[in-house]
Amino acid sequence: VGNPVLSYLNIREVDVGFDIDETSKFFVGRKMMNWSELDSKWSLGLYQPQFRWNPIDPESQGLTGLFWQKKQTNFSMSLFASPLYIPDQGPGYELKDGQFQNSNPWFQSPPQNIRFQGQLLPIDYEVNKPETSDVISQTSYAASLSLGEAQGFFANLSSSYKPANQLALAYKGVLVTTRVRIDILPKVYYENIYSADLGFRESWGQALLSVLYTNPHNPSFDAGYNIPVFQDSL
Question: Nearest 5°: phi and psi at 75?
Fold first, then answer.
């Protein structure tokens, strides 16, 4: 307490529900849902953001916005929309005089030196933080359809168009006398996600086949930056 680099607030979900009729309901707030069995069981963190203060034990957090759910005996549908974007929550860090401080055991510092023309030069980092409004004011959409009962065959189909849960980082290096300055530029980028689950469950357990496909949209950066290139993933 009192140390912002080591203090965290992990709100996994908090929402309010409103009944529309016997089978459908609205939710407002942050809500966790099982959009994809593959994404949930392997903690991929594609549909929903994650609490990554400990990188070896990430915890899922819900999406934030407006949800609509309709549930019947062997059929359910969910829709999600939001004007807000909350990315993954990682470990805090300190940057003083261009150097990352070892004040948080969970934060992995980037290299502090670079070899240039046979000389080992120190690195000074500068993080160009975007405005908070430029990050969180992003729209998200998702939909899910489930078929099947508690036992027997079942299928789940989901899709979303939303910002990726981690920011893209571009960087640019400049040699300044005997030091190297690295400018880091974070930026939000969008991606389409499609997933399908097909399985069979009984009292003894379940057999499941899951497929997940992501189609990221590469963000644009100013000339001179080394930029990440994202590709489709299956």
Answer: -155, 135
- Residue 30, SS3 per DSSP: strand
Residue 168 in tokens: 């893209």
Q: What are the helix (H) ranges across 52-208?
A: 132-136
pTM: 0.89
d(CA 10, CA 206): 32
4-41 residue pLDDT tens? 888 888 999 999 999 999 899 999 999 999 999 999 99
What are the residues whose beta carbons fall under 8 Å from the beta carbon of 225, sequence distance 6 or more?
Answer: 170, 171, 172, 183, 185
pLDDT tens-digit readout, 95-121: 998 989 888 888 888 999 988 888 899
d(CA 25, CA 18): 6
Structure tokens at 6: 């080591």
β-strand pairing of 14-19 with 24-31 = antiparallel
